[in-house]
Design a protein that fits this description.
This protein is an alpha+beta fold. It folds into 3 domains: 16-83 and 135-324, BirA Bifunctional Protein, domain 2; 95-133, no CATH class; 353-446, Rossmann fold (3-Layer(aba) Sandwich). Helices cover 30% and strands 27% of the residues. It is built from 13 helices and 23 strands. The protein has helices spanning 16-25, 47-66, 82-88, 90-93, 157-161, 164-170, 216-233, 281-290, 316-327, 365-378, 392-402, 412-417, 438-447, and strands at 29-31, 43-45, 71-73, 95-100, 107-109, 130-133, 137-139, 149-151, 177-186, 201-211, 241-245, 257-265, 268-279, 296-298, 303-305, 308-315, 328-332, 340-344, 355-359, 384-386, 406-410, 419-424, 430-434. The strands form 7 sheets. Strands 3-9-10-16-13-12-11 form a 7-stranded mixed beta sheet. Strands 20-19-21-22-23 form a 5-stranded mixed beta sheet, sandwiched between helices. Helix 3 crosses helix 8. The longest helix is centred in the N-terminal third of the chain and has 20 residues, at 47-66. The two termini are 29 Å apart. Bound molecules: adenosine-5'-triphosphate (ATP). Residues 155, 187, 189, 198-199, 202, 204, 271-274, 313-315, 317-318 line the site of adenosine-5'-triphosphate.
């Protein structure tokens, strides 16, 4: 069985190229605009990729909004009045240091170079470091002049700050409370890479939690713990994650303190999510620039103040990649060197399909019919796949590769007594279960902490 272009060594950490090859072959991630040679920093998500993205977003939304009294949702526009970015400091300060190679003309992010003056591609001399603003710009309306210039948002957070008073006036929230948003953001990164780790169009999962001045340390720590718990709950192994506090020199212009939740990717330990104490910087900046009062009247203390903000900000593509990397395994399943299976050990709740249904053989109408009826019963409740190609062994391998936790085979015994075999992806064990018990069995497994 072809496992990947360059098979990984069994037992060693997965290689990014094996994961990317599987992701393309099985319909998780494709290079965007591929038939035209692609576009650097942009990716498209196939049938299974979109299912995994939706599962991640649903898990985040449930944990951050639906399961809590103190957080509400928002969906703000991607293009905002350019005054927003002026006030927030992005027009002036949302920059990365950039250096051009004087020989091969390649551009590099200057803070990410092994040697500050030398081009990593050709060894040529690098020129002076300049600040490059990574916001994408466009024009609003038919006239493409400077007065019509606008930006694609580089973060979803500002859409939340400018709606602070709207949410306060139209909901019953009292401080402390949060506003959460999932949405696309765009950054014209100087360099992209490591598959979908650093891209130019991505989706953010952000929440701004408004607290009383002076309460920020406590809430910052609370959100670091909460978020770490969430990453474990979606199936990321504990030893793959670390929390790293930013050095003062690394802090963004608005931050008093930031901690990153980092993941051990095949290419190094890198940021998955940042939890920043944004102080009252943004609300004060928008109050000053817009003239709108964005303070809060605290009925309990009788005081008026500008709230401080704790922001957990995660990226969907990095969550997607971390889940794929942690789930990916190549295992020896028998004595022969060819007996290898590739398996994605997703937590069942993250798996694109929870179950797959097979008739034992394809050409027996009564088996086919019975299997189809089981498939159609499960499908409204669980994302369910159907497969009747090849033999059952091949179908298991194919479902292992996309991380389907349970495979159901309908055989002659099913016709007689209504039982099917349920094969578990991780243990590869089979058990016989009555078809009427399948839904309860899957529901109870999905409810387990590892489910
Ligand atoms: P980095 O240091 O990797 O550039 P950042 O600190 O600038 O990231 P934030 O502004 O804190 O990132 O954004 C919050 C989250 O959004 C990040 O933790 C990451 O998951 C995601 N993110 C940011 N930039 C990108 C990108 N270019 N591609 C994919 N995800 C991104």
């Amino acid at each position: 069985m072809a496992v990947s272009p360059k098979p990984a060594v069994l037992g060693e950490p997965p290689r990014l190229d094996s994961i990317a090859a599987l992701a393309k072959r099985r319909g998780f991630v494709y290079p965007s605009s591929e038939i035209y040679g692609g576009l650097n920093g942009f990716w498209d998500y196939g049938p299974l990729g979109v299912a995994l993205r939706n599962n991640l977003k649903r898990a985040w939304w449930y944990s951050m909004v639906e399961s809590r009294d103190d957080v509400v949702g928002l969906d703000s526009a991607i293009i905002l009045n350019p005054a927003v970015w002026q006030a927030s400091g992005h027009t002036q300060r949302f920059t990365d240091p950039m250096a051009d190679c004087q020989e091969c003309r390649r551009r590099w992010r200057a803070d990410d170079l092994p040697s500050p003056d030398v081009c990593p591609a050709c060894g040529g001399q690098l020129g002076e470091v300049r600040q490059f603003n990574t916001m994408f710009s466009t024009h609003v309306g038919p006239v493409a002049d400077e007065s019509a210039r606008a930006f694609l948002r580089p973060e979803t957070a500002q859409g939340i700050f400018i709606n602070f008073a709207n949410v306060l006036d139209s909901s019953r929230q009292k401080i402390p409370f949060g506003i959460a948003q999932i949405g696309r953001s765009f950054r014209n990164e100087i360099t992209t890479g490591n598959f979908i780790f650093r891209v130019r169009e991505f989706e953010q999962l952000e929440m701004e939690y408004f607290v009383r001045p002076g309460d920020d340390d406590r809430w910052w720590q609370y959100w670091i713990d909460q978020r770490l718990g969430w990453w474990h709950a979606i199936g990321i192994r504990e030893d793959s994650l670390t929390v790293r506090r930013h050095e003062p020199s690394e802090l963004s212009h608005y931050s008093k303190q930031t901690a990153d939740i980092e993941f051990r990717f095949p290419f190094g330990v890198k940021e998955l999510e940042g939890i920043a104490d944004r102080t009252d910087f943004d609300l004060k900046a928008h109050t000053a620039a817009s003239g709108r009062d964005l303070t809060y009247f605290d009925e309990e203390s009788g005081q008026r103040y500008t709230p401080w903000v704790i922001e957990p900000a995660a990226g969907l593509e990095r969550a997607f990649l971390a889940v794929l990397c942690d789930a990916y395994a190549e295992e020896q399943t028998g004595p022969k060197p060819s007996e290898i299976r590739t398996v994605l050990r997703f937590a069942p709740r993250m798996a694109p399909y929870k179950a797959a249904v097979f008739p034992l053989v394809a050409n027996k109408p009564e088996l086919h019919q019975r299997a189809r009826s089981i498939y159609e019963t499960l499908r409204p409740q669980f994302a369910t796949a159907w497969d009747q190609r090849g033999n059952v062994g091949k179908r298991y391998r194919s479902q292992d590769e996309i991380g389907t936790p349970w495979c159901i085979t309908v055989d002659y015994q099913t016709l007689e007594e209504g039982t099917v075999t349920v094969r578990d992806r991780d243990t590869m064990q089979q058990e016989r279960v009555h078809e009427s018990e399948l839904a309860d069995l899957f529901l109870s497994r999905l409810r387990e902490p590892s489910g």
